[in-house]
Amino acid sequence: MHRTSRSAGVLALATAALLTLTACGGSSDPLSSETTDDSTATDAATDGGGGGEEIVVGSANFSESVLLANIYAGALNNAGVNASTNTGIGSREIYLNALEDGSIDVIPEYTGALGFFYDPEFSETDPQAVYDVIQGLLPEDFVVLDRAEAENNDSVVVTQETAEEYDLAAIPDLADVAGELSFGAPPEFETRPQGLSGLQETYGVEFASFRPLTGQALVQALQNGQIDAANIFSTDPAIVVNDFVVLEDTEKLFGSQNMVPLVRADVADTVRDTLNAVSAELTTEQVTEMLRQTDVEQRNPEDVAAEFLEQAGL
Amino acid sequence: MTWIQDNWTVIFPLGWSHAVLAGVPLVIGLILAIPLGWAARRWRRAYPVIVSTSGLLYTIPSLALFILMPLILGTQILDPVNVVAAMTVYTVALLVRTVADGLGSVPDHVQQAATAMGYGGLRRFLVVELPLAIPVIIAGLRVAAVSNVSIVSVASLIGVSQLGDLLVDGFNRNIPGELLLGIAACLALALVFDVVITAVGRALTPWTRTARA
Amino acid sequence: MIQSIIEWLLSPESWTGSSGIATRLWEHLLYSAIVVVLACVIAIPLGLYIGHAGRANWAVTLANSARAVPTLGLLFAMTLVVGPMISSELAFVIPSIAVLVLLAIPPVLSGAYAGVASVDPAARDAARGVGMRPLQVLTRVEVPCALPLLLSGIRAATLQVIATATIAAYVGLGGLGRFLIDGLASGDYVRTAGGALLVAALALTVDGVLALVERYAVSPGLTGKDVGDTAVVASTT
């Protein structure tokens, strides 16, 4: 009898514990705040001790975006704003939804890409003109802050051997041979206006096949010849490391792509001022060098970001 | 491998998130599966319906369920609740059948004896049938736990962070050490779950130990 | 939303072309079939041997604990390690196939092993008693008796492979997973949901076909349909 009552007791206790846990799982708040705390501890340079609204800096799923998110969050924390990161969210189509629904407050963006995203007919290519126009294209609750001089454009790259074999130096050179070549890019390139359809309309380049790939798989596939050309970012250290050839975008299909913080309109002035100060310091060379450190030397993006901020006095 | 030396501590916060995302659904799923399993046992006709419906849920690819959850629940797209809800669906799908079969494994003569002793209805279920079904339920929970730990890592593809981040980041930046650490941490977490569930199972079924000793 | 999914599923344009539903469905079926066949070739003889000889049970335990390895991680590791060794289109296929085979082995192995191990010792003795050699005992008595459990192991493996093959789209594999990954990347939830429905429909259809096979293949002399699946679950732990 004693034994039964003991096991019944354990059972009751377990049930009570389970019910408490369920209650937590049922409402979204405790759980989401819990995970946000985690990411603060993992990703942000400092554990936001300052009070006030927490600012979440999101990022896309590629190294440069993650790096920029860490730079933004680090600068904000240094300025006394309680900021954390949520990195690797996905493509533009996804993280803009996250910005819209308030899951994140800040996201590193690129001027031209925003233009293309909100206006398929977007045709500006001059850096300042692009910047001036996009502000008007954005939804009401989004604001772009100051643009950095640093730029990271989409680019079409091939291996040294392919470039020599087909005598390629610029994207138009592909027009005659693309029918024999396969092309690799992140999946969203297939449907974006300045993606496959842009290549065809602007340059008459139509590849024999399209292979959706991301990250290292894309670089590796180009290296091993499973694809003949790839859409890789111009600041990607893989280009230098593997001696890939960047084909010149003579018609400026990919436009100007200055790095710019895209924020929700309701963020505080401190956030705006701090991020503007960051943009004033960022150059393409610095970003490329920082990416070499994170992707080639495998250093932690958070540390690389912190070093940059220290040198820049931010 | 220097990456591991410099960064291995990230497994703790990420591992904790991972444990919550895999563990909470295990608990909720069990709580939901018990009445469902009981119903499947109680009404003969309900059994095939409940068992095949739950089997059907298991055929939904995890990635798809993660992506579509915000549309179903109306939650924010990066909300971890989406992952918890999706994992609960899988846990229930796995456990309903286990609970039903576990209850079915209670011998008829035991039930009759309990009835004869005056235990009826809910009391007989909670005090006699459910405890006796524990070993089978624990076995099912262990399978569900291992499977949850593995599936949760996919949530990195939708921006909910846990140990899977190490897998995706290690892959994107070509850092084998990070990838390996992620895999090892997932295995370790699965082991922890297994040990905890087994221990809880033993604590809840003292009679099995007495029998062996 | 639901309406646009139905429209997408019914529109002839979504079905045709090199990235249309028909092609993706065929790819998905082909990859899944290759995976399940390979897994069976490896796991069935091994499982039968272990069950028959009553030795090397650790192999079953090992295979089962391998279930805890995150599929996504294994997929990435395999792509990084094996990918560069292959210079053709197969570089996208082989790593994914290998990972899926590893995923499919445990249920098939458990099914084969548990099937043979659950054969009534009296039946085995009787077979020996009438003068059957060990191999004959295996093929004429143990395998037919093990069939229900073995087939349910294969069914479980097939369902798992069909659902999990979708993740392999992240490393460039074709198949229905493309709709999920590409839909996610381009924020096109209609394609994602439509793709998910197709995967579930495919899984159910294949499962139905296997259920029929099971009904015809299992000797009418065997009952124990009910205990079958339970034993597999129990044996996987």
Q: How would you explain this protein's 3D organization?
A:
The complex is a heterotrimer of chains A (314), B (213) and C (237). Helices cover 48% and strands 14% of the residues of chain A. By secondary structure, chain A is α/β, with parallel strands linked by helices. Chain A folds into two domains: 35-44 and 54-151 and 256-312, Periplasmic binding protein-like II (D-Maltodextrin-Binding Protein, domain 2, 3-Layer(aba) Sandwich); 154-247, Osmoprotection protein (prox), domain 2 (D-Maltodextrin-Binding Protein, domain 2, 3-Layer(aba) Sandwich). Chain A has a five-stranded mixed β-sheet. Chain A starts with a helix and ends with a helix. The model of chain A is unreliable at 1-51 (pLDDT under 50). Chain B is an all-alpha fold and 213 residues long. Chain B has one domain: MetI-like fold (Orthogonal Bundle). Chain B has helices at residues 2-7, 11-42, 46-57, 62-73, 80-104, 108-116, 121-152, 164-172, 176-204, 206-212. In chain B, helix 2 (11-42) packs antiparallel against helix 7, helix 7 runs antiparallel to helix 9 and helix 8 runs antiparallel to helix 9 (176-204). Chain B is elongated and about 65 Å long. Chain C has one domain: MetI-like (MetI-like fold). Helix content of chain C is 78%, strand content 0%. Chain C is built from eleven helices and no strands. In chain C, helix 6 packs across helix 8 and helix 7 (121-129) runs antiparallel to helix 8 (134-164). The termini of chain C are far apart. The model of chain C is unreliable at 224-237 (pLDDT under 50). The chains are: A alpha/beta (314), B mainly alpha (213), C mainly alpha (237). At the A-B interface, helix 1, helix 2, helix 4 and helix 9 of A face helix 1, helix 2, helix 5, helix 7 and helix 8 of B.
Defining key terms:
heterotrimer; A: 314 residues; alpha/beta; D-Maltodextrin-Binding Protein, domain 2; 5-stranded mixed β-sheet; 3-stranded antiparallel β-sheet; 13 helices; 10 strands; B: 213 residues; mainly alpha; MetI-like fold; 10 helices; 81% helix
